[in-house]
Structure formats: structure tokens, C-alpha cells
């Protein structure tokens, strides 16, 4: 599956580059036709006359134009087959991609990854599509995310603090108030499972890191419970 996706992307990029070259050839023809006579312009503006002229053996230029038009038509059809399930890119995604494409860096001057006519492939936003469907956001959320990204960072920090407080202090307080040793062991298992779920969901930790964190968390709770049990037994004795 990875090979098929990669091949599709390579074919899409190749089709874009080929279209850019074909459009450049079309622009050259258009520039020459702009200086053509009125009779020649009438032929070009009438497809029936143009195709008839191109079919004649002596009209090499019209034959070239007709072949180019057919080639562009086939290439556009191929290009649309690759971009059928796509959507327009968001402004932030497009800006990030352009920075990557032009190799923009604060320490050096940027340069396009592709050369020739392909260097301007991504200059027009309306001609671009996104390979993945962007998440739909309302205008206020999009504005806040773009203008005040630090607010989202603060929200993430606050959520992490809340999770940390609940999983550490909440577990210790719950174990402290529980008298039954069997219930305490059940609470240790419950909070350990809850801790592993939270770590797996809100962090990018690997499996080994999640396992190590859960082991350390369970060890802290076991040490607290064993110390509490020992102090309770000594006081009873």
C-alpha cells in the first residue's frame, strides 16, 4: 500500500510538471498568434476551420497547435484522475508547503525545489488541491489559531496540569481515605490503567516509554499503600 501511494504521488508531480511545460508551449503559440493577421485569428477562433487547416499537410504550425491541444486535453484528464478526491489547501498548509518547496530559511536565501517552468507550479492557490481533507473550522477558531497560537499552547499546558493533579494527588487521596486493603489494590490497578490511557492519548510516547511510566506510577502508589499499611499496623499494635 505504501508503494501504491508513493507511486500515485510521483505520478501526480510528474503530471503537474508536464502540464507546466505544455502550458509554456501554449503561451508561446498565443504570443505568436497575438501578432498574427486578422484572417489567421479568424481561423484560430473557429474550431472547424482550425481543424481543417491542421489536417492539411502543408500547415505545420496548425498541426503542431492541434497536437498540443490534444496533448493538453489528455494530460488534464490524467491529472484530474489523480486529484478527483482532493480539496483546496488551507492558507496555513499552503504557506508551510511553499516555505518547504522554496527551501526558505532565515539563515540563507531560498530556491525552488523544481526548476524550469515547474518552479512556479505552486504560485496560484486556486490551481492547487490538498491530498487530505482539511478539518472544518469556523472563522473564529481559524482566526484564533492563526493570530493567537500561544492560547492553544496554554490550553494544552493547563490540561496536562489537570491530568497530572488528578492522576497523582487524586489517586493518593483516594488511597489514603480507603481502609480496605483489597480495595486499595483494586484502586492501584484502576489508576494505573487510567494513567496508561492518558499517557497514550495525550502524549507521543512510544510503547516502551508508556510501559516504563506506568511501572513507575504503579510503584509510587504501591510504596504509598505499603507505607500506609505498615503505619496502620504499627499503630494498632
UniProtKB/TrEMBL annotation:
Entry annotated with the keyword Transmembrane: yes
A Pfam family of this chain: DUF6594
InterPro entries associated with the record: DUF6594
Keyword Translocase: no
This protein's UniProt keywords: Membrane, Transmembrane, Transmembrane helix
Residues of the DUF6594 domain: 12-222
Positions of transmembrane segments: 148-173, 185-203, 210-229
PANTHER family: DUF6594 DOMAIN-CONTAINING PROTEIN (PTHR34502:SF4), DUF6594 DOMAIN-CONTAINING PROTEIN-RELATED (PTHR34502)
UniProt-recorded name of the protein: DUF6594 domain-containing protein
Native source organism of the sequence: Phialocephala subalpina
Amino acid at each position: 500500500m505504501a508503494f501504491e501511494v508513493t507511486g500515485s504521488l510521483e505520478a501526480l508531480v510528474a503530471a503537474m510538471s508536464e502540464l507546466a511545460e505544455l502550458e509554456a508551449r501554449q503561451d508561446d503559440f498565443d504570443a505568436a498568434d497575438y501578432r498574427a493577421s486578422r484572417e489567421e485569428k479568424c481561423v484560430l477562433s473557429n474550431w472547424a476551420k482550425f481543424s481543417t487547416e491542421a489536417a492539411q499537410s502543408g500547415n505545420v504550425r496548425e498541426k503542431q497547435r492541434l497536437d498540443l491541444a490534444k496533448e493538453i486535453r489528455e494530460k488534464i484528464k490524467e491529472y484530474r484522475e489523480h486529484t478527483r478526491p482532493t480539496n483546496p489547501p488551507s492558507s496555513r498548509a499552503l504557506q508551510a508547503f511553499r516555505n518547504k518547496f522554496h527551501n526558505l530559511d532565515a539563515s540563507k536565501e531560498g530556491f525552488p525545489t523544481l526548476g524550469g517552468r515547474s518552479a512556479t507550479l505552486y504560485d496560484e492557490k486556486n490551481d492547487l488541491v490538498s491530498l487530505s481533507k482539511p478539518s472544518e473550522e469556523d472563522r473564529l477558531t481559524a482566526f484564533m489559531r492563526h493570530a493567537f497560537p500561544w492560547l492553544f499552547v496554554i490550553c494544552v499546558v493547563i490540561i496536562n496540569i489537570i491530568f497530572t493533579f488528578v492522576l497523582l494527588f487524586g489517586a493518593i487521596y483516594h488511597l489514603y481515605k480507603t481502609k480496605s486493603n483489597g480495595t486499595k489494590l483494586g484502586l492501584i490497578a484502576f489508576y494505573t490503567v487510567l494513567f496508561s490511557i492518558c499517557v497514550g492519548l495525550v502524549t507521543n510516547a512510544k510503547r516502551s516509554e508508556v510501559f516504563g511510566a506506568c511501572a513507575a506510577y504503579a510503584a509510587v502508589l504501591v510504596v504509598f499503600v505499603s507505607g500506609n499499611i505498615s503505619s496502620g499496623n504499627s499503630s494498632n499494635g
